[in-house]
Amino acid sequence: MTPTWERDTFLAAVGDAVWAPSIHNSQPWRFRYTREGVDVLVDPGRVLAACDPDGRAARVSCGAAAYTLRLALAAAGEPAQYTIGRDGVAARLTPGRTRRATPAELRLHRQIRRRHTNRFPFADNPVEPAALAALADAAGQEGGWLQFVTGEADLNGVAELIRGADGRLSADPAYVAELSAWSRGADHRVEGVHPEAAGDAPHPAELLHRRDFGGPEHDATRDPTHAPLVAVLGVHGDGPADEVRAGMALQRVLLCAADLGLAVAMFSQPIEVPAAREGLRRLLDRPHLPQMVLRFGYAPTTCYTNRRPVADVVEP
Ligand SMILES: Cc1cc2nc3c(=O)[nH]c(=O)nc-3n(C[C@H](O)[C@H](O)[C@H](O)COP(=O)(O)O)c2cc1C
């Protein structure tokens, strides 16, 4: 049996992995150091009961963390092999053959702590076609797909699904209380979405209705989501393991975007409402359910959210 990574290598890689995106910055993951390698586990105590009753978003978040862990290990010259969804483990990493990191891995690795979700207005200039191809390729490399939504009718259709889903979710007091606890009420030193990362409060007139993380009220002079480049991400299956894979594809796309100098916003409200999710699947004419709606563009760096320390997320 190949011995596992040195503990310091493991801890350094987890130090990178925690910078993965997660639903409401809930960081619903744990990392277990074993004799064979590293297990990435869903932390059941951090699954969001109101907005994620089935744990789907937690599995996506864990997939994003597992991809980041893989990238960190590859950048250290000690890449991992992995399995997904076996023995109740989101992802199990074991040491592969040591090799030098590729320039592409090093570039993506440099983006792990630079990448962030951007809920502010994007510039008007269109995204280069080469960037679109690179983003779709990033999803494909992790077994996913990224479909750009072109044409006014489809874009309006996606916008309607986001708005309708957000309205549905916001009518549930438990959802609103949970969202408030993870935004206004969170301990922003270690978790949750900081009001400064929230962007202005969503305005009824904006095209893509943003989730309300408690940003300041304002007079809408300009729609922060105007002229959007929207894409939907998915994988080739709808089971729990597919959701972990979707998280891997998501994080690879996000890091690729950061490497290309692109800002990204996420909209998962229509993924959280089954009827809206099915509507989105039909609109895209896909055999499988979508996993995330993304908006890309050029924009200045905004506010970073924080993370819990490594000691809080590793199993003894
Ligand atoms: C499964 C999932 C769903 C998300 N849904 C949304 C969303 O609907 N709206 C939003 O603004 N951000 C969304 N995010 C982004 C998280 O809020 C963000 O990753 C987290 O707050 C950490 O911040 P960072 O991405 O800037 O590091 C989502 C992230 C994940 C992984």
From TrEMBL:
Gene3D superfamilies: NADH Oxidase (3.40.109.10). This is Nitroreductase. It comes from Dactylosporangium darangshiense.
